[in-house]
Structure formats: C-alpha cells, structure tokens
Amino acid sequence: MTTTPFGVQTAAPRTTAVAARATELSKVYGQGETRVVALDAVSVEFRQAEFTAIMGPSGSGKSTLMHCMAGLDSVSGGSATIGDTELTTLNDKKLTRLRRDKIGFIFQAFNLLPTLTALENITLPMDIAGRKPDKKWLDMVVDTVGLSGRLKHRPNQLSGGQQQRVAVARALAGKPEIMFADEPTGNLDSRSGAEVLGFLRNSVRELGQTVVMVTHDPVAASYADRVIFLADGRIVDELRHPTADAVLDRMKRFDAKGRTS
C-alpha cells in the first residue's frame, strides 16, 4: 500500500514490467520573468498492459508530461525512457524511428487522410516505413475496434466515432510498446466517446497494450486502471480502480487544497 498526499491509501501496482518511466523529469519554458515551470521533477512509471489516465487543471502539466514521455517535446532535466531506451540520448533520426516503431499516438483530431480508405489509413505508418503489417494482428485489432465492415470506407463516409476508431486501430496496428492518447474523446459525443474508451480498455485487457491518456473528463478517467493527478507541474495524488464519482471527488479535494495553501 502507498499513501497519497491526502492520506488516502492505494493498492500497490501489479508486478509487471515498466513500459515507460520518468525520473525527476523537468520542463521549463522561457527565462527570467517569463520563466514557466511546466514539469517540476516528476517521477512516474507506466507499467505494461495497464491503462493510466493523467488528470489535472489547465496548466497543470498533464499534456506536457505526455509530450515529453512520447518524445514529442524536449526535456529540461531528468530523464524519460520507453522500455530500456533513454529518450534524451537520442538524436532526431533515432527519436523519429523510436516514435514510429515503439509508440502509438491518438489525438483529439483524428488526423486521417481523406483520400485513403479506413484500412489504408490504418496501415499508412507501416507503409511509409516499408513494413508489412502482421495480418493476424491487424485482423485482431480491426475486430477489437469493430471496423471489419468499414475498411473500404473513406473518412467522409464514417461517423466521428468510427473515424476515431480508425485512429485507434492505426495506433495499435504497429504493435507499439506504449500508446499515448491526448483527449481522444474531445471531439466525440458521449456515446461515441464511450465506444472509443471501451476499445482502449479492451486493447489493454485483450491485446496487452499499454495506454496513457490525458483527459479532463472523470467519466473517461473511470475507464482506466489508475489515475494520476497533476497540479503545478507535480504529481499530487493517485487513484486506482477509479469510478467517475471518486475521480470527481479527488479533483475537488486537491482543487480546494490549492485554493487554501
């Protein structure tokens, strides 16, 4: 058991391998009077086959943490690793290869090419890399996200929820070591959002995928195995086996703590 800053005990994480790790990770923007500390010596682990949600108020550093962990932004101090690979030691070419081969990305914008079919959008990263998809794995991914009957459709023939499912399948198709999702349901209605979140959870439970998701929505966070809360660039709390009500209550508590400190 571990104890949060609010005196709440949480269960110890499962003893699985670490997919990604931040150690004393810092990110600073600007200098002098314009200096902003976005991340303040953050240390956190993301374990394999686990779904983690990152939450916090605007400006808390949650998106910055994800971007630094995914190699989309440089760090000012500390380290970030994917598997056994330290990101801060990689040059641009090696970092691009790592993002292509080991990391999956899902963003609020679907980022699909309108002239390609759903299947062509799913396999596009592998096509660019000159890699043939694993057909058995690809079929399993497509079945998991429920797109078997839509593979020949172009994005304008798909609903928003279906387009995001294509984006999820694209992120999964290359067998990434970890998948990062930044507000993946932000452009979806509640029903479509629930479908996409269910697919992310199933990818963890059925395919052994590791998912790290930034969200502001307690309902979305309740699909995760655990939630970590950031405020002022630091991790201030953690919740395992979350419910929407428990997440909302925890957010209110550290918001109140911030106002009175």
TrEMBL record:
Keyword Membrane: no
Gene Ontology MF terms in the entry: ATP binding; ATP hydrolysis activity; transmembrane transporter activity
Sequence ranges assigned to domain ABC transporter in this UniProt record: 20-257
GO cellular component: membrane protein complex; plasma membrane
One Pfam family recorded for the sequence: ABC_tran
Keyword terms of this UniProt record: ATP-binding, Nucleotide-binding, Transport
Source taxon at top rank: Bacteria
Alphabetical list of InterPro entries matching this protein: AAA+_ATPase, ABC_transporter-like_ATP-bd, ABC_transporter-like_CS, ABC_transpr_LolD-like, MacB-like_ATP-bd, P-loop_NTPase
Protein name listed in UniProt: Putative ABC transport system ATP-binding protein
Taxonomic lineage: Bacteria, Bacillati, Actinomycetota, Actinomycetes, Kitasatosporales
